[in-house]
Hints:
single chain, alpha+beta, Alpha-D-Glucose-1,6-Bisphosphate, Chain A, domain 4, eight-stranded antiparallel sheet, 3 helices, 23% helix
Amino acid sequence: MTDTIQTGSPSGVAMTSETSLRIERAYDASPEEVFDAWTNPEVLKRWWAVHPEGTTPIAEVDLRIGGSYRLSMEGPDGERHTVQGQYSEVDRPHRLVYSWQWELDAGGLGPASTVSVEFRPDGERTNVVLEHSGLPDAASRDRHAQGWAACMDIFGERAFARAA
């Protein structure tokens, strides 16, 4: 299947099917540094958000096949969104694959989907290719496309920031 950019989609996001998306970003860091920033709870707390003033109150990671993660992002309005899942592939510094399920306000979990992230070296930079598949419908895909685009932009701004 050929990837196409849909009208109105965030920059660099391809809608690969009705229920899948792909987003690519390049970062000025080695694949090891980018992979570690993606999986280290302390670093995740710096960047896991979709709003520039957002915070990450929860970042729990058991980085191994079958291990779980749980991440919360909180916007400036205090609204919190928490996702959890399990790792099915961990190949540092090349690739991660994990399940993705939002925790519902009423309790329980939303529909499961799958995220795969590749960390491709490109000289002194790393190209990150994220694919999110198995989303319930096009509306969910579009919301996730917006969220991932914002999150990956914030990753670029905050993940490698050094403490002052």
